[in-house]
């Protein structure tokens, strides 16, 4: 079981659609600060990073892995000092052949002989859990679409487990895991692997924060428990795309702002991804009315306790029994240093603070999957084209 106190995800590349992505030199500075100076021992990446990537004006996929590999070489970092987790692109890309070939590509870019945790970026099969929108409803029609069912259907759990075991036996990976999956996918993988006598997944990565606690309540926590499948949980978006930093409290995100002049200024000088047309639209689930109502209440708790909402959010996340690793992403050094400072606070949040957070949670257990603005003319399609409800 892989467990880590904290983990930092680095997304490299100045790309036209992502205003604040750090460049190579900044990524070097981030890793110097986090790993060499402060003891962070794990890096999470993916062959698909940076996102967005590709196209004539964008850095190609895999560039993030390349920078990490260069940094390890240039700094003379001993390989055993860092745990490297990367991901194969999900969906129909996940085949035994591609698992082998894509892993080889990641090894080359990372300039390493082995990967500690090789993960599926999203499931090889249809799963509503991978939906970036506001619905977790299983849709039989989507599962039966030609994309998933032609050419023999998605890669089976058996073929997936055997392909990962081949990489382990070849010494190319130490373990493997899942990302953006659910309790069904996790348990199917672990049970299939055990039935075949091969290595089961050691981790699952999922969206998890004060305003997205579904993994504690939808079976994932039960499945991952050391009493059941004994799988570590890596939480990402612990700050909900920046919403839990409270920087959008005084002035709404650009796409939500009814003041057009002010919204235009926010787009011209964005405070974060929520002030951009691309990511701001994609990540709208963190800005539902219910989510923002919860955020305001959590901010009051933080203020009462003399801490920032960022501190409250990260310390709460670290304290959850489900979470074995917390991923945090940064676009500048100030953000990184702030997160590192909070992760070094050893004192747990008090029972009263944890209970006050639970009281807010009980008012709406899934705020990012709520919506007060669904129109009768939407006809089953959400704000970014995802199927709803």
Note the gap between the termini. 36 Å
Reported for the largest beta sheet, the result is: 8 strands, parallel, barrel
- Proportion of residues in β-strands: 5-15%
Characterize the overall form.
globular
Helical run tally: 15
Question: Helicity level, as a percent range?
Answer: 25-40%
Alpha-beta classification = alpha/beta
What radius of gyration results from the CA coordinates? Answer: 20 Å
Average residue-wise pLDDT? 90
Number of strands: 8
Low-confidence stretches: 1-18
Instruction: Give me the oligomer status.
Output: single chain
- Secondary-structure element series: EHEHEHEHHHEHEHHEHHHHEHH
Name the strands of the widest sheet in spatial order.
1-2-3-4-5-6-7-8
Short description:
The chain is of the alpha/beta class and 389 residues long. The protein has helices at residues 24-37, 63-75, 96-110, 140-143, 146-149, 157-169, 183-196, 214-217, 220-224, 260-268, 277-282, 289-304, 309-319, 333-343, 351-363, and strands at 7-9, 42-44, 83-88, 115-120, 173-179, 203-207, 232-236, 325-329. The protein is globular, with a radius of gyration of 20 Å.
């Amino acid at each position: 079981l892989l467990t880590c106190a904290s983990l930092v995800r680095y997304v490299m590349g100045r790309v036209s659609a992502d205003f604040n992505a750090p460049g190579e030199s900044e990524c070097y500075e981030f890793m110097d600060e986090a790993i060499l100076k402060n003891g962070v021992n794990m890096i999470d990446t993916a062959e698909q990073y940076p996102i967005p990537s590709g196209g004539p004006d964008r850095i190609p996929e895999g560039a993030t892995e390349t920078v990490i590999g260069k940094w390890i070489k240039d700094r003379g970092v001993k390989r055993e000092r860092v745990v490297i987790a990367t991901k194969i692109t999900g969906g129909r890309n996940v085949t035994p052949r591609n698992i082998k070939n894509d892993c080889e590509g990641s090894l080359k870019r990372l300039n390493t002989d082995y990967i500690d945790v090789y993960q599926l970026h999203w499931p090889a099969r249809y799963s509503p859990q991978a939906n970036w929108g506001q619905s977790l409803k299983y849709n039989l029609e989507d599962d039966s679409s030609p994309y998933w069912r032609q050419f023999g259907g998605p890669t089976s759990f058996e073929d997936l487990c055997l392909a990962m075991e081949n990489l382990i036996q070849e010494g190319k990976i130490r373990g493997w895991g899942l990302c953006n999956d659910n309790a069904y996918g996790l348990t199917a993988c672990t049970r299939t692997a055990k039935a075949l006598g091969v290595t089961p997944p050691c981790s699952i990565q999922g969206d998890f924060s004060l305003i997205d606690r579904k993994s504690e309540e939808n079976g994932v926590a039960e499945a991952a428990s050391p009493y059941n499948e004994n799988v570590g949980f890596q939480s990402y978006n612990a700050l909900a795309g920046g919403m839990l930093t409270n920087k959008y409290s005084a002035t709404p995100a650009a796409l939500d702002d009814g003041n057009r002049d002010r919204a235009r200024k926010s787009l011209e000088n964005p405070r974060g991804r929520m002030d951009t047309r691309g990511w701001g639209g994609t990540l709208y689930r963190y800005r539902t009315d219910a989510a923002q109502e919860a955020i305001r209440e959590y901010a009051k708790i933080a203020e009462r306790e003399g801490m920032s909402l960022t501190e409250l959010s990260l310390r709460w996340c670290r304290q959850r029994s489900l979470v074995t690793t917390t991923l945090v992403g940064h676009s500048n050094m100030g953000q990184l240093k702030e997160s590192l400072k909070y992760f070094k606070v050893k004192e747990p949040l008090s029972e009263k603070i944890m209970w006050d957070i639970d009281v807010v949670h009980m008012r709406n257990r899934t705020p990012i999957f709520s919506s007060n603005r669904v129109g009768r003319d939407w006809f089953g399609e959400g704000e970014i084209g995802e199927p709803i409800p």
